């Protein structure tokens, strides 16, 4: 079951909650879309979720990607894992006071097949989403293995 929590300001300030609610819902949908396209292995759809200048600090590589070709190279390799699936387990959201940026952090679990056996990789994530030309795009994405799984 997904644990979904929003920062206290949104919970405690009714007028801000009313203004922020639709944006938070759109970002939640964008994050779930990210997990879906990872699970479907759809590279082009995945790359389209990132802003052109997005920064990627990936789970299973040491390089930091700040260019489209670097994100493409990482995700081509990552999506090549057989039977790759992503499940979002926890989700914490914070929205900027100007409502243009949302930061989402939490845990996800990747499963994939390696040497004929199912592997599980629990990881932490932090995404920054910005509304750009009417779409909520990923401008920053950091992911790291859970310390307990390293």
UniProtKB/TrEMBL annotation:
GO terms for molecular function: calcium/calmodulin-dependent protein kinase activity; calmodulin binding. InterPro entries: Ca/CaM-dep_prot_kinase-assoc, NTF2-like_dom_sf. Residues 27-147 form the Calcium/calmodulin-dependent protein kinase II association-domain domain. This is Calcium/calmodulin-dependent protein kinase II association-domain domain-containing protein. It comes from Paracoccus denitrificans (strain Pd 1222). The lineage of its organism: Bacteria, Pseudomonadati, Pseudomonadota, Alphaproteobacteria, Rhodobacterales.
């Amino acid at each position: 079951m997904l644990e979904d929590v929003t920062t206290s300001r949104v919970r405690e300030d009714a007028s801000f909650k009313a203004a922020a609610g639709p944006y938070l819902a759109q970002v939640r949908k964008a994050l779930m879309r990210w997990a879906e396209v990872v699970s479907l292995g759809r590279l082009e759809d995945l790359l389209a979720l990132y802003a052109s200048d997005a920064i990627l600090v990936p789970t299973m590589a040491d390089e930091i990607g700040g260019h489209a070709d670097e994100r493409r190279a990482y995700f081509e390799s990552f999506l090549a894992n057989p039977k790759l699936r992503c499940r979002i387990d926890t989700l914490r959201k914070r929205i900027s006071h100007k409502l243009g940026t949302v930061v989402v952090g939490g845990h996800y679990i990747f499963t994939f097949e390696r040497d004929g056996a199912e592997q599980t990789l629990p990881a932490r994530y932090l995404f920054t989403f910005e509304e750009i030309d009417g779409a909520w795009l990923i401008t920053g994405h950091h992911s790291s293995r859970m310390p307990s799984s390293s």
